[in-house]
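As a warm-up, study this chain.
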Amino acid sequence: MKLQLSGLILAAAAFLGTSSTAFAVPQTDVQEYSNNTATEYFVDQDSNKYNSPYYRGMNDDWGWTHNGIAGTGFTSILLDISAFDVDAPGEDDMISVYTGTTWLDLGDLAGSNNAWAFTQFDLSGYAWAEAQVNAGLQVRMNIDTQRTGWLVTLGKATLSVDGGSQNCVPTPGVPCVSVPEPSGLALLGLGLVGFGFARKQAQKA
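Now compare it with the structure written out below.
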């Protein structure tokens, strides 16, 4: 019986291992200060949120590119952008993404006065989204489109597919936390069940 149980556990583990590569795996790409380029201005820490060059206005538009995420058949594609001091209504900071042929306006950042907050954009329903996520999604921001004097600071941007692999807070300088893969959780559960069953069999013997 113990040999049969061990074989069952190993077979299930092998199946889960192969199935996790056959389908899209939850992943998150995080763009923040640690991987800024010369033309990117994610702030390094909360205390610098009002400082140059991070706190930017209508003549200081900028953009960034996410790392490519491999996979096909994504069930969800979510772009979350952490911004500070978005005074809504009144302040309009337009977020756009490159579709492969043109730039598409997704909408304005949302938030509140003197606070950090994520704005989420759902790209799941766009036919072009998967290819652009594979290639590396390009994002840009048009700050203060109404040109009324507003300024904004960005903390980070996360691009997540199929639920994502990291949990992040909007405040800059706070590391994101990894989320265990579903297959890993399943293997752990299977192992615990098998261990408990083996102990019961040993007690009976």
